[in-house]
Amino acid sequence: MASSGSYNRRERPAKPALSREGIVAAALEVVRHEGVERVTMRRLAKELDTGPASLYVYVSDAEELHAAVLDELLGEVSTVSLPGADWRTRLWTLTSAYRDVLYAHPGLARVALVTRLSGPHYLRIADAVLGLLTEGGVPPGPAAWTVDLLLLVSTATAVEHGTRRNRPGSEAEQDALAQALRSLSPESHPHIAATGAHLLSGSGTDRAQWALDTLLNGARATPLPPGA
Questions:
Q1: Where are the domains of the chain?
Q2: For residue 54, which of 81, 116, 189, 227 sits 20 to 30 Å off, Cα-Cα?
Q3: Is the pTM of this model over 0.85?
């Protein structure tokens, strides 16, 4: 007769088979509830009831895992066209939705800033941006380069504002900058004094919209360098 210990081991439910999809799904749950900073191989191994070394069969390192989690979150970004809207409005809506995902997860936004993303959801967004640029009359070469530039600006904006939002004292820093600008003498800083009213003007949304329009206007009028 089998011992009670043997019986318990036989009757214990089998663990789900380890897979890349399962690892990414577990990491995504940790990100949603505790933030990307808590996503480590050791933590996920504990969640999945396995050893850390087993995870490296499916993901090479934490950076690759973070990029995969970010791509899953980018699946929330809709690339469906807005009926009746012009191409600039649709492009603004798309890049804003992309930026909002990163803004909500500044730790992952920093990953996007330094990692060459290549996941299916990211490529879907890049393809949609390229299609809208083409629709707007941006030539193929500049359109290809503008995709990278637009998403880079959106990513950097999300990193900046998402990180500041979570950092204590950010409002005090903004007040200190405003005070420093107001206190500058026109004799020592003539150009800052002349434009000081505009240096901190405008909402974040207004500035992001202006940056998009500036990039688009430049992309339509600026050819690629010779031999590019």
A1: 15-59, 72-167+203-228
A2: 116
A3: no
Q: Nearest-5° angle of CA 115, CA 117, CA 120?
A: 160
Spatial distance between the Cα atoms of 138 and 38, rounded to a whole number of angstroms: 42
One CATH from 3.40.50.1000, 1.10.10.60, 1.10.10.10, 3.30.870.10 for 15-59:
1.10.10.60
User: What pLDDT tens digit does each residue of the chain (228 aa) get?
Assistant: 455 454 454 554 556 689 999 999 999 999 988 888 889 899 999 989 999 999 999 999 988 999 999 999 999 999 988 888 999 999 999 999 999 999 988 888 888 888 889 999 999 999 999 999 999 999 999 999 999 999 999 999 888 888 777 677 778 888 898 899 889 999 999 999 888 788 889 888 899 999 999 999 999 999 999 988
Distance CA 42, CA 28 (A): 15
Contacts of residue 184, Cβ cutoff 8 Å, sequence gap at least 6: 192, 193, 196
